[in-house]
Design a protein that fits this description.
By secondary structure, this protein is of the alpha/beta class. The chain contains 17 helices and 26 strands. The N terminus is likely disordered.
Amino acid sequence: MKKLFLSAVTAFFMVSAYAQTDVNMGIIPAPVSVQKGSGSFVFDKSVVLLSNNPKNAKIAETLQSFAATKGLNLKIVKTATATQKVIELTSVGANQLPDEGYQIKITSNRIKLMGKDAGLFYALQSFMQLMPDKKHVGAISVSNVEINDYPRFSYRGLHLDVGRHFFPLSFIKKYIDVMATYKLNNFHWHLTEDQGWRIEIKKYPKLTEIGSSRNGTIIGVFPGSGGTDNEVYKGYYTQAEAKEIVAYAAARYINVIPEIEMPGHGSAAIAAYPQLSSFPDRDTPIKEGAPWSGPRTGKQVQQTWGVFDDIFVPSEYTFEFLQNVLDEVIAIFPSKYIHIGGDEAPKKYWKESEFCQQLIKEKGLKDEHELQSYFIQRIEKYLNGKGRSIIGWDEILEGGLAPNATVMSWRGEKGGIEAAKQSHDVLMTPSTNGLYFDHKQSLAEDEPLTIGRNGKGVSNFTKVYNYNPVPDVLNEEQKKYIKGVQANLWTEYIETPSKVEYMIFPRVFALSEIAWTPLAKKDLKNFSEERLSLHLARLDKTGTNFWVPLPIGQPEGEVKGEDHVITLKTPITGAKIFYTLDGFRPSENAAEYTAPLKINVPQGKKKVLKTIVITPSGKRSVVAETVLNNGAAEVKVK
């Protein structure tokens, strides 16, 4: 039990000691209230850990293990004398706190962490961020402070697509550790796609025998010109493994929301069971309730990206199939929510299908959009009968919204605004506001291949941080339906765990703050120049990959004039900045920035300042460029 959270502790919880001087004590996400006192609590060998509630045993053991990494032998006791120096874990009084809220109170003789369930767990996360990151011999000092904290939103989510690319169980756990550290509480697990079905369904073994394996993967940028690699790509999670993830997440107060896509993005399922298609292959045995309306060939687990015309036919066979699948899914996942997709469902085959057109007439529907609404409402009614609720992407608004559905607004905020006005719960995750973490993080040529190209889809941590999930156009009553915020990571171009890390860090820090911290407490300067640099320095020591931010203070694009003074600051504690003015690419062999740069540009000339940040472990930023132009021809800066 002592090792239950230790991997997360050792990998993610260490922050430099001088973070304590920061206005938010170095904590991400920033707490609601931080009141500093005079003096400090000094850790020494006499300090004990007071925990007399069995429900808090796991948290006590985690804190004990964490203290050991600091060279402290922290004994757990059930009682302590009035004069003893203690760290106390308590739930007494926590009923007066907001949901998931906590209090940390540090005085010269006592540290009290107060909270109930998730609240106490989050108190532990914040407290460990207060601690120095080095192992000390002797005493450790922590400033006296009172922190009162609770989340802005009840839903704080992070998504991972395992359909396009599959990731091992060990990495899914690491992903969840990151979420727990930064107080995110809903893991959206995108388990089915055109390119792969990733969850075992025992009633339908072909879903994993056939649907989890594709015969190749597109080479390069979609739509591509290099074909596919002709290599078999496969992988899926057994039900036992999925249950293991559910339990691992629950121990960290994270809910796992499975997504089973319908009616679109179903190529993998259709390849396994062609009866699900509006146009099954001619040689496929047709079962009762699975209509066939003409020849369509080439059913396969898709090898390329994009949106495909073949979607589920709304037949009784399909509904029985999906209900049986969902029965097994809800037996694995206790989540109140089941995500059913509903996005990017082309209507071409439904328009061409005699069966679908007849069904539209029989049901008195207006068109194929209302047919999709009929489809979604049938699934919702079934899941509601099982005590569950559905989440769908904002396309489920088309043709009429299912009565109890929660809308996940991804095509901007429009869908979320419309749903809130209809008194439906909304989760904001707009791709246009930085919350698609598969988009590139700068326009530099060094950025790896991503789905956002040619200047489109750029999302850096600043854009994420500046996003407010509650639209101003809503009135106060409508704003209550905005239940939370989520970032999504689609993996068409993300093949490895290392690249996943590169894409989520440091943006996940910004996500946690917009999900947790009150709007009035947000401070981009404090976040980016103080706390972010410390947390990235910590990550740099763990072997975790991340996108290295550009130098703070470097102007973007083109700056005109003759004389320039450019003052830079490293974005990561301990990192160095190197620069060139000769047109060559900077490296550690270039000039190191040590003082403000005074640059003169002759009349009619221009100079290009190129910089690179290199961390203590050797990680490198992309090359940032600033054009200093004194009357030369206009230039286009990438």
